[in-house]
Write a structure and sequence with these properties.
Elements: H1 3-10, H2 22-32, E1 39-43, H3 49-57, E2 62-67, H4 70-82, E3 89-93, E4 105-111, H5 120-130, E5 131-144, H6 150-156, H7 162-171, E6 174-181, H8 184-200, H9 206-223, E7 227-236
Parallel strand pairs: 1-2, 1-4, 2-3, 4-5
Antiparallel strand pairs: 5-7, 6-7
């Protein structure tokens, strides 16, 4: 069984595919989406759940998603049709780092997919190239809540702490407008769903069951106590002087 299919099965019971609950996702989208018709792009869309939910609450909006995983894109197509938004969703199967578009987007998302660009700031650089003036970005990435073990770094990557992560964004010209720190319940629910969904669908497949077991052990023994997840709504202050901090006459998001 290939990696993409394993990921699709593992996210069957947690379609948002990131450690956030429904209320957090709704709040982030509500603050980021324009009130009228909008164009949206999800870089690393997976099963498309962020876009599907956004299209449901913005009937005039249109969206595009980019991902390499065909099982996830197939799921997104089926769900878009089932929810009646298929005519407003375009999906691209390609490397997100090579994606280009003829027109910029009002909202660019990259939640849990920054690794495809080589990290958080490179992902935001790609989002900036695709973002319309005055647009918003929703980005989600990990950070260390406390000093990680070498094993945790090897498993997940070399993140920074929360303050250093936010400082890096603001130094790069991004203005945080809203944020969500995943709770312990959200983080644990995501991991239990990931490992449990995969195990439940592979009870008679020892090799796949071993993947679930290895992931669960890595989480419980490696990074559970030190890993956090931050999701932010951002404005691009580097090219939007009217939105700079301290401007009391700046338009509200």
């Amino acid at each position: 069984m290939n990696r993409d299919l394993i990921s699709r099965l593992a996210h069957a019971d947690h379609p948002i595919a990131a450690p956030l609950g429904d209320e957090a996702v709704a709040a982030l989208l509500d603050r980021a989406l324009p009130r009228d018709g909008a164009t949206m792009l999800d870089l690393g869309c997976g099963g498309g759940e962020w876009l599907l939910r956004a299209l449901a609450v913005r009937p005039e909006a249109r969206a595009e998603g980019v991902d390499l995983a065909e099982p996830a894109l197939d799921h997104a197509r089926r769900e878009a049709g089932r929810r009646g938004v298929g005519d407003r969703l375009v999906l691209h199967r390609q490397d997100v780092s090579a994606f280009t578009a003829a027109e910029p987007f009002d909202l660019v998302l990259c939640v849990g997919s920054t690794h495809a660009f080589g990290g958080l700031l490179p992902a935001l650089a790609a989002a900036r190239r695709l973002l319309a003036p005055g647009g918003r970005v929703i980005v989600g990435d990990g950070y260390w809540e406390c000093e990680p073990s070498p094993e945790a770094v090897e498993m997940l990557g070399d993140f920074a702490d929360l303050a250093t992560t936010v400082d890096a964004l603001t130094t790069d010209g991004w203005i945080p407008l809203y944020g969500h720190l995943s709770t312990r319940q959200e983080l644990d629910d995501y991991e239990w769903s990931w490992t449990g969904s995969l195990a439940a669908q592979a009870l008679d497949q020892p090799d796949v069951l071993a993947v679930a077991t290895e992931h669960r052990n890595g989480w419980l023994r490696g990074y559970r106590d030190c890993f956090g997840f931050l999701t932010l709504t951002l404005a691009d202050g580097s090219r939007s002087p009217e939105a700079a901090p301290g401007r009391l006459d700046a338009p509200l998001p």
